[in-house]
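Wed. Picked up where I left off yesterday with Lipid II isoglutaminyl synthase (glutamine-hydrolyzing) subunit MurT. The coffee machine is broken again, so keeping this brief.
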Amino acid sequence: MVSKIKFKSIISILCSKLTQFLSKKFLKGGSNFPGKIALKIDKDILKVIAKNYKVILVTGTNGKTTTTSMIYNVLKEQGLNVITNNTGANMFPGIVSSFISNFKFSDKNLKYAVIEVDEANVKFITEYINPEIITITNLFRDQLDRFGEVYTTLNKILEGINKVPNSKLLLNGDESLLGGLSLPNPILYYGFNDLENKNTTIEVNADAKFCKFCKAPYSYEFITYNHLGKFYCPNCGFKRADLKYAVNKVLETTSEGSKVIFNDATFTITQAGSYNIYNALCAYSIAKEFNISDDVIETSFLKQTSTFGRQEILNIEGKEVKIILVKNPAGYNQALDMLCLNKETFSAAFLLNDNYADGTDVSWIWDVDFEKLQKMPMNNIYISGKRLYDMAVRLKIANLNEENFIISENYDSLTKNIISSSSKKVYVLATYTAMINYRKHLHNKGYINKLW
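Structure written out below (tokens, as returned):
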């Protein structure tokens, strides 16, 4: 195997592996930098290190990390040799790092790779890899300074797909932007066939309300959330594609999870919210494309745990603290809907940052429906992060009880306040870098064992 690899590639791999070792030992992380080192030495290294893999790419605005984890766990439960970039390093260098960390010069066996990829980075990955399947979860406004509107995001993804015309596409059929694509790829769709609460009125601030062909407003048989649902255009006739994989019934929803019927089998989802039903349905669809049985899928779903800020549950001095990543209006509203499923009292912390990875424009918080929390039994409302005062103003305008506001200008203060909370259950809703940094703080305090 070594003799078939160019000397430059060997040096690239060895230097990257050394950098990974040093990063983990002394810096407690560094998932992108080893990939940057590898690419600096050999810009084509991904073609070498991903050669013996069947690759599944997971992209889209919301749900990438959880969906990737669920697909990975199902394939692993099936007994397949599978890797993933489980730290969420979904840019080109981070993905290279992930492959290199699993690379062995003597290994020629066929393996599987479930890879989360940032929407703008798909084109860099498909330059070197021909994925078995590319799945797209959804498209929402996200990081306005980086992506702008949803059509920009779609075009960035399509730049990558256009390089791999033979890759199978598994798409969210309820996402109108993913319908009617003029591509040579084989395309399959998943989505909801049934929803008990058949809401047909789209939100004022929904993202893709107008037909992508004639620009007339969509009508809906039902809406799951934001602009997702069973859509049709009454003007030109464009409508949702036929679904191969579908939610045929939602049997139960609680603040802890859901029980659903996918096609003709019942599954338990251990994470709450409609968006996690979509994530599980996507994982189910991928599994069925690899002929994995319903029993194996259900076993995997039951073992699924929440990690790395995706409804991750921690015990902090007897408090049940659930960390939820929020990064755009659509995802934030879904998180708030989950909070609204609580029947007992709770407290909540709202952490808002404006670093590059969060999006430097925080005006999006005014499109989040915080008003739905007005009647919820919330004891304490903690506010923190670089833009904590912007968040405080937004929550005040939402008419939440100001007497319950507790400002925490640093994470020490926030943690002490959570420990002294009058609630046993505390939700922490945090933007990306706020989530990352608060988890580092909790790791240093001994409340999180595994940082990455």
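Quick read: The chain is about 35% helix and 20% strand.
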